[in-house]
Recover the amino acids of this structure.
């Protein structure tokens, strides 16, 4: 009942979620889990953006790890090679990747279905090769060392707890902006494009403008996440931003529920933390991981968020039926 | 009086098939004009080419005297020309109200930036969109279904919703592609009423239709197409008696 009404009032949900994020660190017993929560937060930021593109607008991207990687590498290079402050790295990478995503989005988003998937896949691979081959900038396959730890306006974020709250602040900002976009003229246009491009265009929706717009926005989210990642880990290597990570991001969107911002966070949290819990299975870890994904998709094909929603609705209906049967007043 | 819509030598070939063959057509302002013809006469193709969902092979389309032949569909919509579809194209995952709200896209302007930050004017605009969309639902009689998912409506209501969505863009010219297809007698009667009320809003209506009763009842002017050509034009009474029309529909004796 409560989750249902929350979905109708996303702002109430937002407030509750903020409180949850605030209190979460006090519930974990092991400091290592703060670490996991930070990565969940960073992944959530990317997945929210990807969900706007994939779940809401119906456009696939198999190259989002590239934008995430660019965010990390641009700030990483500026920091490690030229001692730029993190905030400068963020601004530069937002501008550069924003322009890049815009230029790539114009021709790419004219494609549909498999072709769009191939094009974005290609983008991911090309960027990955640049990370590996531009040794003098990126440090090549062995990675880039010496990225400065996060410090904003003279405030250092050197403890895991402080970094957790920094990431949470960015996650909440991303979420709030996204809730606003989804519940607006823009959000309706995006979902209309998903529903029927022809119908949207006869109603005056400029399809390519909105597709490119959401592509750029989701790339900017990934850049922000990459920036948070680089200054947290302070060491980055190409393997974190490869094809497999792009696939993992898509999996998070689908498992969470396409077209649900809460689902995006849910999916990111589950897929990021699951391997940690599956450590007990040792060698079978990956198999169990795969099995869980298969089971979720079989029993909740619309993803976890919608699946739970459906489940709750069904239980309410059952409850109502029971009530009716008990009181035969009709 | 200048026609609101005019085609000059409009052609569309699919391989060897001439779906539209040098078609000259004029739609005068404020009229309800029907376009009829046997299957494959090119009626739906005509709508698709006018709204540039598919590009023509040759010829021109003029809207209020301006060439729109090579303009993008959304630009044509912004000039005041919209349409519905024979095979419904609702945003079926969205609610009834949201469908109509998309219809108001052209008459609002919140963009990515202003919407993400929910600037005060976006907030006011959103309220205006919502209120006016409800009015449109009231106008077509779907106000009891506001929050239902569009895809879950009965078929007849889905047709009406598509119309409401198109109306919300306040077009000058509305093209209805078989508005009565799949409707029962009572629903068809409601549709006839609705189309007449749309004309009263100063919207020119062009419709493609198979249901002859509907055509004869609502149209002021009827154009008959056969194999991509215009074979007759006139008021419904004249068309009913036209030799060429009878021949096209019934075949030669």
């Amino acid at each position: 009942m409560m989750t249902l009404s929350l979905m109708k009032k996303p702002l109430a949900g937002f407030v509750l979620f903020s409180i949850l994020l605030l209190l979460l660190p006090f519930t974990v017993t092991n400091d290592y889990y703060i670490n996991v929560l930070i990565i969940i937060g960073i992944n959530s930021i990317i997945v929210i953006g990807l969900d706007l593109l994939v779940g809401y607008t119906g456009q696939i991207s198999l190259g989002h790890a590239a934008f995430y990687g660019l965010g990390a590498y641009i700030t990483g290079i500026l920091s490690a090679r030229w001692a730029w402050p993190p905030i400068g790295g963020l601004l530069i990478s937002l501008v550069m990747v924003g322009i890049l995503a815009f230029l790539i989005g114009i021709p790419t988003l004219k494609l549909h279905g498999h072709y769009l998937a191939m094009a974005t896949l290609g983008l991911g691979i090309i960027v990955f090769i640049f990370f590996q081959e531009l040794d003098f900038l990126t440090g090549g396959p062995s990675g880039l060392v010496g990225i400065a730890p996060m410090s904003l306006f003279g405030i250092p974020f050197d403890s895991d707890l402080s970094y957790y709250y920094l990431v949470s602040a960015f996650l909440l900002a991303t979420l709030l902006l996204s809730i606003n976009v989804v519940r607006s003229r823009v959000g309706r246009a995006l979902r209309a494009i998903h529903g029927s491009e022809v119908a949207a265009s006869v109603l005056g929706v400029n399809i390519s403008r909105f597709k490119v717009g959401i592509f750029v926005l989701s790339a900017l989210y990934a850049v922000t996440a990459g920036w948070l990642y680089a200054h947290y880990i302070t060491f980055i290597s190409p393997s974190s931003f490869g094809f497999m990570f792009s696939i993992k991001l898509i999996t998070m969107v689908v498992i969470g529920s396409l077209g649900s911002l809460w689902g995006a966070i849910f999916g990111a949290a589950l897929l990021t933390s699951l391997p940690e819990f599956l450590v007990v299975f040792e060698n079978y870890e990956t198999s169990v991981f795969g099995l869980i994904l298969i089971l979720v998709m079989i029993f909740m094909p619309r993803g976890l968020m919608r699946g739970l929603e459906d489940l709750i609705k069904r239980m309410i209906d059952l409850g109502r039926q029971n009530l009716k049967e008990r009181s035969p007043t009709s | 009086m200048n026609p609101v819509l005019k085609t000059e030598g409009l052609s569309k070939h699919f391989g060897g098939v001439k779906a539209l063959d040098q078609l000259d057509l004029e739609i005068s302002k404020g009229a309800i004009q029907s376009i009829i013809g046997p299957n494959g006469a090119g009626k739906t193709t005509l709508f698709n080419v006018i709204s540039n969902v598919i590009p023509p092979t040759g010829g021109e389309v003029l809207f209020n005297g301006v060439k729109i032949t090579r303009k993008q569909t959304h630009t044509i919509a912004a000039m005041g020309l919209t349409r519905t579809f024979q095979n419904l194209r609702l945003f079926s995952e969205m609610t009834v109200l949201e469908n109509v709200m998309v219809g108001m896209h052209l008459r609002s302007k919140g963009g990515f930036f202003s919407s993400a930050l929910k600037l005060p004017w976006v907030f006011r605009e959103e309220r205006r969109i919502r209120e006016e969309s409800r009015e449109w639902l009231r106008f077509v009689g779907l106000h009891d279904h506001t929050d239902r998912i569009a895809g879950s409506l009965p078929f007849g209501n889905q047709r009406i919703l598509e119309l409401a969505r198109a109306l919300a863009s306040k077009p000058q010219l509305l093209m209805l592609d078989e508005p009565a297809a799949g409707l029962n007698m009572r629903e068809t009667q409601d549709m006839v009423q609705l189309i007449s009320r749309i004309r009263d809003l100063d919207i020119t209506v062009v419709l493609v239709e198979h249901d002859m009763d509907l055509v004869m009842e609502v149209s002021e002017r009827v154009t008959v197409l056969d194999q991509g050509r215009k074979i007759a034009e006139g008021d419904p009474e004249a068309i009913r008696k036209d030799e060429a029309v009878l021949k096209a529909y019934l075949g030669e004796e």
Summary: Chain A has one domain: 37-299. The mean pLDDT of chain A is 92. Chain A has 15 helices and two strands. The domain at 37-299 of chain A is CATH 1.10.3470 (ABC transporter involved in vitamin B12 uptake, BtuC).
